[in-house]
Amino acid sequence: MTDLVAGQIQMLFDAVVTAMPLAQDGSIRILGAASAARQPGLPDVPSLVELGFPHLDAPNWFGIFAPSAVPPAVLARLRNAMARITGSQDWEAQLRVRQATPFSPTGTALDEFLISERTRWEATVRASGATAT
User: Fold this and answer.
1) What is the CA 104 to chain-centroid distance, rounded?
2) Per-position DSSP letters for 4-61, written without gaps between them
3) Region of 24 on the Ramachandran plot (φ > 0 left; ψ -120 to 50 alpha; else beta)
4) How far apart are CA 84 and CA 82, in angstroms?
5) How many helices (H) and strands (E) are present in the chain, helices listed first?
6) Rounded CA gap, 106 and 8, in Å?
7) Given pLDDT bands bounded at 50, 70 and 90, which one contains residue 25?
8) Percent of the residues in the chain that have a pLDDT greater than 90, as a whole number
9) What whole-number distance in Å separates Cα of residue 72 and Cα of residue 80?
10) What digits encode the pLDDT tens for the residues 84-117?
11) Is 95 helix (H, G, I), strand (E, B) or coil?
12) Is residue 133 in a domain?
């Protein structure tokens, strides 16, 4: 993002959450959103699907994960703390200001989401030739 603002690069894919402050102050211009539809807070910014890239419906999501060896009591405390935070109106308001959508699946819903994401992107990663080291 620093290189974009400084004119060292001409384009960058980044999360709207981190790009919004720079777009709002005029330092950058958001050309498209990697989603199927326009973002509610960016009505003048077309989606990449709308621009003719049907496979670029790829909204950002963030997760909090812990090692499998973490004791169940510690995990329960972490889950409760996160539920208090992500369930608050202030959290949702902060996300909306940044054009983010609250999404807090837990348990099997989170497992299903992660499996669907892996399935969705597996062929793309294989085709790219990328490998994990």
Assistant:
1) 12
2) HHTTS-S-----HHHHHHHHHTTS-----BSSSS--TT-TTSPBTTTTT-TT------
3) alpha
4) 5
5) 5, 0
6) 41
7) very high
8) 47
9) 12
10) 988 889 988 888 777 777 777 777 888 899 999 9
11) helix
12) no
Cα 71–chain centre separation: 28
Would 10 be classed as within a structural domain?
yes
* Biggest CA-to-CA distance, the chain: 50
Residue 82 falls within a domain, yes or no?
A: no
At 74, which amino acid appears?
V
Question: Locate tokens 């980044």: which residue?
Answer: 14
Domain count, the chain: 1
Tell me which long-range contacts 102-110 makes (C-beta under 8 A, separation of at least 24): 103/61, 106/79, 110/63
Place of tokens 């909306």: 96
pLDDT in tens, 43-55: 999 999 999 999 8
